[in-house]
Design brief:
Length: 116
């Protein structure tokens, strides 16, 4: 650069409703820890939309070490995200029995405490 020229400004990350894409994706991926929310998404037929299913696949980057540290409940969040990659699970989550089983499994894991 010559003389008094200043470098071009660094573009600011786009904001959506005041939030960054990272913040929005973090909030959404954490919501996947809830079996009731998964049931709601299924009842609204989101899991029948190929673009939404592709988005769930894209979100698997949250299972990588640089990102897992941001998750409040990494165990159920990542487990459910993995299950959502299966077409059968996306259909089965409509069943109240499957929702109840996920809650029971989560309660058992919570009562056992973290693995040592």
């Amino acid at each position: 650069m010559e003389g008094n020229q200043t470098p071009p400004p660094i573009p600011e990350e786009p904001r959506y409703g005041g939030f960054s894409r990272f913040e929005i994706e973090l909030e959404f991926v954490q919501s996947l820890a809830s079996p009731l929310y998964l049931n709601h998404l299924a009842s609204m037929k989101y899991f029948e939309n190929p673009a939404f299913v592709a988005y769930l696949s894209y979100l698997q980057y949250w299972s990588l070490p640089p990102y897992t540290k941001y998750l409040d409940y990494p165990g159920p969040t990542l487990r459910n995200l993995e299950l959502l990659q299966q077409e059968r699970f996306r259909a089965d989550i409509l069943s109240p029995d499957v929702v109840a089983r996920l809650f029971e499994e989560g309660m058992k894991r919570g009562a056992e405490g973290p693995p040592s």
